[in-house]
Specification:
single chain, 254 residues, alpha/beta, Rossmann fold, 7-stranded parallel beta sheet, two-stranded parallel ribbon, 46% helix, binds NADP nicotinamide-adenine-dinucleotide phosphate
């Protein structure tokens, strides 16, 4: 899908991956309508809205269409996590996380995909995580939200296959952003924090996503080395689960 000359609805561009993506997409000639609670810098239209609230999502779509007339590409990038055992995570935290990570993405797709189908062209990009493919036990319910987002993306791609509208999945690994601090609660395992030097940057993810859009990729795994973990988890699930459990135990008896 061509980025130059396209109108893009991008969520979560006030920070991290979304902010870097807004810069890269604008540099490649797109007009970006960016949506998040805080304002987004350097975009054609900055819309402040809480994507956890259905009425706010409707308002954001209305504002983007009023400013740009049509949306060619929807990028569901906004996301939030919670570091807590699934069996004692407050249900309100889980609902909030699923509202942003999953229901918001589906809702925005339902609001914007019909006009793409009518034009016979468009793309929905969903930013999931490597956690959608390999469940991270310090992030069980976050992994569940991203696994559901992946299933939605795969199904949507098949549903729309004959319409000219595509769906692309993005699976970042560990990226240096404010994500770990913006969680609804808890803290990551020490080994994850100390491994931060191996993390990729928002800029690298933005480049991979923009390149993926332009070559009509099905899935963008970034860094690509993430596929090795996915393969290992498929071939030797007990071994990988054991390693992940050991990392979880480094959190202590919280
Ligand atoms: N960082 C990582 O290691 C990593 C790895 C894999 C996947 N991801 C995924 O990548 C995406 C971007 O994360 P990031 O690392 O760039 O994190 P980030 O720096 O915390 O950015 C998250 C973005 O989502 C927006 N957002 C969160 N809740 C929102 C809400 N209720 N309404 C509107 N916007 C909301 C935030 O904007 P406001 O706060 O202004 O609302 C912010 O712009 C997320 O979907 C995340 O799950 C991140």
């Amino acid at each position: 899908m061509r980025i130059e000359g396209s109108n893009i609805f991008l969520t979560g561009a006030s920070s991290g991956i979304g902010a870097a993506l807004a810069v890269e997409l604008t540099r490649r000639g797109a007009r970006v309508a960016a949506v998040s609670r805080r304002a987004s810098a350097g975009v054609a239209v900055s819309i402040q809205a809480d994507l956890a609230i259905p009425e706010e999502r409707a308002r954001a779509v209305g504002a983007a269409l009023a400013a740009l007339d049509r949306i060619d590409i929807l990028i569901n990038n906004a996301g939030v996590g919670v570091y807590a055992p699934s069996w004692k995570t407050p249900m309100d935290d889980m609902r909030h996380m699923f509202e942003v990570n999953l229901f918001g993405a589906v809702d925005l797709t339902q609001r914007l995909a019909p006009s793409m189908v009518a034009r016979g062209s468009g793309l929905v990009v969903n930013v999931a995580s490597i956690a959608s493919k390999v469940t991270l036990p310090w992030f069980t319910l976050y992994s569940a939200s991203k696994a559901a987002l992946e299933a939605f993306t795969r199904g949507l791609r098949m549903e729309l296959a004959s319409t000219g509208v595509g769906a692309m999945l993005v699976c970042p690994g560990y990226v240096k952003t404010n994500f770990q601090n913006a969680v609804l609660g808890g803290r990551p395992p020490e080994k994850l924090v100390s491994g931060k030097r191996f993390a990729s940057t928002a800029g690298a993810v933005a480049l991979a996503v923009a390149d993926g859009i332009e070559r009509d990729a099905r899935t963008v795994m970034t860094p690509a080395l993430g596929w090795a973990l996915v393969a290992a988890a498929r071939l030797a699930p007990g071994v990988v689960d054991g390693r992940l459990r050991a990392m979880l135990e480094s959190i202590g008896d919280e």
